[in-house]
From TrEMBL:
<dbReference type="Pfam" id="PF12706">
    <property type="entry name" value="Lactamase_B_2"/>
</dbReference>
<dbReference type="InterPro" id="IPR001279">
    <property type="entry name" value="Metallo-B-lactamas"/>
</dbReference>
<feature type="domain" description="Metallo-beta-lactamase">
    <location>
        <begin position="186"/>
        <end position="389"/>
    </location>
</feature>
<dbReference type="InterPro" id="IPR036866">
    <property type="entry name" value="RibonucZ/Hydroxyglut_hydro"/>
</dbReference>
<protein>
    <recommendedName>
        <fullName>Metallo-beta-lactamase domain-containing protein</fullName>
    </recommendedName>
</protein>
Amino acid sequence: MHSLPQWRTATVVCAALSSHMTSHVRVCSLARIAAREFVPNCASVCCFGRRLQFQGRGGGGGGGVTGCGAVDRFAPRASTEGVAAMASIATVQVETEPDSDVTFAVGCRVSSSSFLLAPQDKPVRKKVAPGPGYGQTKLGRPTTGELEVGGFSIEGVSVGGQETCVMLPALKVAFDSGRCPGRIIDMDYVFITHAHMDHIGGLTMYIASRGLKKKKVPTVIVPKCIKATVEKLLAVQRELDESPLPVNLIGMDIGEEFDLGKGLIVKAFKTYHVVPSQGYVIYTVKQKLKAEHVGLPGKEIKALRESGVEVSETVRISEVAFTGDTTSGFFLDEANEDVLHAKLLIMESTFLDDSTSVEDANKYGHMHLFEVLAHADKFKNKDILFIHFSARYQQEDICKAIENIPAPLQGRVHALTEGF
């Protein structure tokens, strides 16, 4: 313990443990340092990014106490138990009344937070085999969780009202920009479902970061009805930032398509939210021999082709569909049949239990798990990934709800719980 009268500098060491050897931890309110140990008579402490602030009452003299400081980045240190010990040093300056003493604790407690003090370049991979339950690596934002479902590699973060960005790294495609998690910078295409801030808020940062890293100009697809407004947003940001923010901005209407190349087509489909919205389905496009020619010798097929007969036909297979925010109207819409047959359906399921009614969920343009269960027979997808859970839930609540899903969806539903 150190006694610090008037303006003095103290060092506070903060430590925490993580279950992943290579991961970093983030600190919530760098302290909830035990107030009684930190400043006599109960002080409050907050951490804003890398700056530490606190205030409270002084020692016996009762003088006022304020302070601020800088937090150094964490350094991992492997322990014999197979966990990584993280430590940070905060150098703090304190101002007290002339006759007051302030006592600091050398140690403090650490809990989870939305502030990342030690950036991590790559998320830890944890493969999730298709089957019952859920799975992914729990990492701190702005890093993203990574999982595999039905043969698709997926990265992202999705918390209702806070942030949604789901990526398919193999295709360099992201759905929604969230608050611009670091991994999105490597995605060449971003498909925006609607203009709520938790889905589009990081868009200008994404564009600026691509330019800063000298990556090729990104392509951003937005609902056609909001394209002009997004252009205004970009114009304002260009003026403020005094930078070009190069981007290929495309407005896409429901039913329209975008060619990703390499035999991949993206089509916009109708969703039902409280603001204009749309989802996206990715198809593979292949040439397939017509049924009447199947089984014929190769020479005969060649002869038919040379005589001008069309022996093949174009076939589309819906691979991945992403809903964004929507009510159950999307799966009741007959025009969205391809979405319900996609190999992987990534869909919102904001509410999971009877703490919120189906009616209230729909009122705010969202879906309830109860609706999905009531119409389970409509979903022909091999796998379904639920996202966008309400922030009211804990990770255990989500996992329990997924594990209890009955047939015919049992074993086909997974959950992206990054952020919980």
